[in-house]
Write a structure and sequence with these properties.
single chain, three-stranded antiparallel sheet, 9 strands
Length: 296
């Protein structure tokens, strides 16, 4: 038998029809007990045992729920038909929810590609798509529908943590060399999320996954240092823009003075003018006039 999910094709009876049949059997048991003959009592006992066994066959499914059916250790199929039904009472029925679930993975500390400790977290949206693997490939160590669903959720949490660590370790948090083509965790966006989903689906083949990184920051021990580095980088970038603009303005002023012949400047005066203009344009504070307060 292939180790994959398939639909249950065994006998299925409408639950209300079987309930009516059981009521008829119950009425027959009462009549036999009233008869009180030996044969009638024996028949009533047999029908009573049959009635109890039949009671164990009822199942009820809501939308996006399923039963994995096991007959004396053999997988008999997955039952997904919603409603009230009766199935072979000797079947073991494992109820599996097929509904969408959310998992908010708390931020974990990992080292990025260059060794910087970072905090990274994700939000995971998933649902079971292969009930066979969900039941038989995962050891829940104990039986019961609730126990198995909880074990599967724990398994998803652990595997998502491992996938997140693997992806985070392949990329740097941020580009420290101003390389626009370098893929980083901070700038990767959808591409990083797609790789994370790919790793999750490799580890969790029985479930459909959709993952998004929802938290990304430097670890506290280096956050202050990295903040200063980012501030310094921003200041340098701003200074470059200021100097570039100042040089353009000085060149424009000199060209206009020469073109309109407002004043003729020799090289020494040009150098002094350029220096003064650059000081004014590149200074952090506005220029202040110098007032000569000395006595005549």
């Amino acid at each position: 038998m292939a180790n994959k999910e398939f639909e249950y094709h065994g006998p299925i009876v409408n639950g209300f029809v079987m309930l009516f049949i059981q009521l008829l059997i119950m009425a027959g048991i009462v009549l036999l007990i009233i008869d009180a003959s030996t044969m009638a009592v024996v028949t009533a006992i047999v029908l009573g045992i049959l009635w109890v066994i039949m009671t164990c066959g009822y199942v009820m499914l809501e939308p996006n729920e399923s039963f994995v059916l096991i007959f004396f250790g053999n997988y008999s199929g997955t039952f997904r038909r919603t409603g009230y039904h009766w199935i072979n009472p000797f079947m073991t029925k494992r109820k599996i929810s097929l509904r969408i679930r959310n998992l908010d993975v708390e931020p974990i500390k990992v080292n990025d590609k260059v060794g910087n400790p970072i905090l990274i977290g994700l939000v995971l949206v998933w649902r079971i798509k292969d009930t066979y693997k969900a039941v038989f490939d995962l050891d829940s160590q104990s039986r019961g529908n609730n126990v198995h669903n909880l074990a599967f959720q724990t398994f998803v949490s652990i595997q998502s943590d491992a996938a997140l660590r693997e992806v985070a370790g392949k990329y740097a948090y941020d580009d420290e060399n101003d390389n626009e083509h370098l893929l980083t965790l901070r700038s990767g966006g959808e591409e990083i999320n797609e790789q994370l989903e790919h790793k999750l689906n490799e580890r969790l083949a029985m479930a459909g996954m959709e993952a998004r990184i929802n938290y990304l920051a430097y670890a506290p021990e280096i956050a202050a240092v990295m903040l200063r580095r980012q501030q310094a980088s921003a200041i340098i970038t701003a200074r470059e823009k200021i100097v570039e603009g100042a040089v353009t303005m000085v060149k424009l002023a000199l060209d206009r003075l020469e073109k309109e012949e407002v004043v003729k400047l020799d090289n020494e005066r040009k150098a002094a003018m350029i220096g003064n203009l650059l000081v004014v344009l590149c200074a952090d504070d506005a220029a202040q006039p110098v007032v000569n307060t000395s006595a005549n």
